[in-house]
Amino acid sequence: MKKRVGGGRFKLIDVLLTTIIIFLAMTALLIIFADTKNGQNVKSAKSPGAISDKVKVDKADSNFEGIRIITETSNDPLAKFAIQYPQSDSPEFNEQVKSFITEAKNSYLKAMGELTKTDNKKRSELNISFDTHMDRKGNYSFVLKNNETLRGTKKPAEIETFHLNPKTGTVMEIETVFKNESPVVREVTNRVRKTLSSTEKLQEGLIADKAQIRTEPEWRNYKNFALTDKEIIFYFESGSLKDESAGTQAAKIPIEDMNDLLKPEFQVATASADKTDGTMGSKSPSDGKEQPEAGETAGGEDGTEPGNGAGEQPGQPQVKRVALTFDDGPDPKSTAQILEILKKYDAKATFFMLGSRVEYYPDMAKAVKAAGHEIGNHSWNHPDLSKMPLPKALEEINRTRDIILKVTGEKPTVFRPPYGAYTEQLSKQTIPPIKLWTVDTLDWKYRDAGKLLEEVKKSTHDGSTILMHDIHQSTADGLDSVMAYLKGEGYTFVTVSEMK
Q1: Model pTM?
Q2: Domain segments of the chain as ranges
Q3: CA distance from start to end of the chain
Q4: What are the residue numbers of the active site?
Q5: 412: phi then psi, degrees, rounded to nearest 5
Q6: For the domain bounded by 45-172, which CATH number is listed?
Q7: Given a cut of 50, is residue 290 above it in pLDDT?
Q8: What HEC string does 48-116 produce?
Q9: Of 15, 62, 178, 285, which alpha carbon lies 20 to 30 A from 412's?
Q10: Which residue stretches of 115-208 are H helix?
């Protein structure tokens, strides 16, 4: 009996132990599952690979030969970023740029991962954008700007520049551009300091504290620079000079003033030579910066005088009219071809230009103006203005107004927001009237010369405003057929300002 009772007790203990073990195992699995689920965002914030499903990567051609624009965006609430950078046909250049982007992104994501246990209601964002400069020899300078905000705290902006000879694929450094003689870097220092000390916002206490250290005669202090068609710009670490409110610290020096320090292949003609031939460094009312803000609704009265197009004349019978518009240019090849076709049909059009492209193709912008066409403002870099803070949106518009004024001598007379998107607040500002379109040829989608005419035939009627893009070669190739059709249908070509 005792044996039987004892044996039953042991069996009962075995059952209890087994039940406890199973319960503990299941509890552990549930805890692990919950931790994994709750920790997904934490992990994603630490590792770029972990948020790959939330990152969108786009690739687009740019107006600069051989250069593509890569855009990476993530809407992960704990790892939000928008990154844009250039890509070329040079593996060495691409590796350098990608290395900078990867390091900046990983640093941001790591910081986000460490902050996940704190208050995550404050805004965090990484934004990397870039500007492209081209000098008179055709070399590219790319200025990448890293703006980072962590939990509502904005970090000092970081600037990194990259340089490329697109013809040879050679990556350039500061020592590539300047002569190798030892006195050269000291003279660069002297001229930079002189420029900084005479710059209004940077006058106070420049030759002291960090400014003195940051401008010491060592090439590493001048590694972030840009060559443009008119000047050399040296960038310094944000906050390295006393006046941090001035934003990015930069010294701009005319190329002519640095000619004697440059290697022969980077030297340029003197200013006097430029003025005589009117080509290099053309001195028209160029290079300025100031423009309107935001205006009336589409098709609003603007009070501007009629342009040079073939509008209605008093006493004449009603005629069918159509306004041809071209966005996103200018482009040195396709815009030139479009101008020739418009001339062939004695037609005037409206070109809504991007400021960034006017800056790099000023001669083409001048050619559009010289041909009697209307020039409109289409922002600097084609962002969605409706999703930007008002001051930022106005900066896009004003900067474009200024470069158009500088290059052509006249401010743009109309404004078209990218994607046709704008806020009511933006529309109430004092920019030229907003002009949209009624016929979208979808040339941006099809990139097919034949499709262009098909879409025009489908939707055009008297009073139509037709949207096309002069950056697409297919649009230039298909335009002649469109013009022949419209003229055959009895249409008169007017600018958008004349279309009332």
Answers
A1: 0.48
A2: 45-172, 175-268, 320-494
A3: 111
A4: 327, 469
A5: -65, 145
A6: 3.30.565.40
A7: no
A8: HHHHHHHEEEEEEECCCCCCEEEEEEECCCCCCEEEEEEECCCHHHHHHHHHHHHHHHHHHHHHHHHCC
A9: 62
A10: 174-177, 182-197
